[in-house]
Write a structure and sequence with these properties.
Blueprint: H1 11-34, H2 36-51, H3 58-65
Helix pairs in contact: 1-2
């Protein structure tokens, strides 16, 4: 039986891993309450907003629409 060496993560990798865990938890909650289609759509929409630099507060988003 071979054991794999333990991989040491740096601070940035630890931070990214924590965000991936949070995204997974939120995704599971969305699926449980609203189904897979909603969860996928919400995540795709979020990615689109990030790509278009449309992230920020709800108040800021509302002011851009007017």
């Amino acid at each position: 039986m071979s054991t794999q060496p333990k991989i040491e993560l740096d601070e940035e990798e630890i931070s990214k891993d924590a965000f991936f865990r949070r995204i997974a938890e939120i995704s599971e909650e969305m699926i449980a309450r609203h189904g897979k289609d909603f969860a996928m759509g919400a995540l795709v929409l979020a990615a689109q907003w990030i790509a278009e630099n449309r992230t920020g507060t709800v108040k800021g988003a509302a002011s851009r629409r007017s």
